[in-house]
Design goal:
Layout lengths: L1 E4 L11 E3 L2 H9 L5 E4 L13 H13 L7 E4 L4 H18 L2 E7 L5 E3 L10 E5 L5 H16 L1
Parallel strand pairs: 1-2, 1-3, 3-4
Antiparallel strand pairs: 5-6, 5-7
Length: 152
């Protein structure tokens, strides 16, 4: 199951379920059936700071450490730069527990998946966490769907 966590942006077509709260995302993760999740940070009014994508990223990190959830692909599509850094760090920590790789990618005008270099257009870069051996077409699809959702 591919989960899209966002309270405003519409779900891209290649995701299976759209949730708008951290609690709903965590409930789905607890089933062990989530294979991919894309996280937004700011989820509406949150005076207690307990309903945001950062809480989900932290939960994934802890669950991975304790072996409570299977490996999954996680991306962050939030526009909140400060929160994005912390979320990516939590998700990067899961890589240590699952043996995954983190990479920054973009797709050029010819549809070719590229790594980040000195002349990369920064508005087209997406961070992807993936397992060794993940087909480049799967990574490319994640990059394109995340970019499309960011523009929506």
């Amino acid at each position: 199951m591919r989960v899209w966590l966002d309270d405003i942006r519409p779900m891209p077509a290649d995701f299976d379920i759209h949730v708008k709260t951290a609690d709903d995302a965590i409930r789905l993760l607890q089933t062990g059936k989530v294979t991919a999740i894309s996280l937004d940070h700011d989820l509406g009014e949150d005076p207690t700071h307990t309903n945001n994508g950062g809480c989900v990223a932290d939960w994934i990190e802890q669950a991975a450490y304790h072996g409570k959830i299977p490996e999954l692909v996680a991306t962050v599509h939030s526009d909140n730069c400060g929160a994005t850094i912390a979320m990516r760090q939590a998700l990067e920590n899961t890589n240590k527990y699952w043996g995954k790789i983190r990479g920054l990618f973009w797709v050029d005008d010819d549809g070719v998946l590229r790594g980040v270099g000195p002349f990369t257009p920064t508005d087209r870069v997406v961070e992807v966490v993936y397992l060794p051996g993940t087909p480049s077409e799967d990574i490319k699809a994640l990059v394109l769907s995340t970019l499309k959702a960011k523009k929506a």
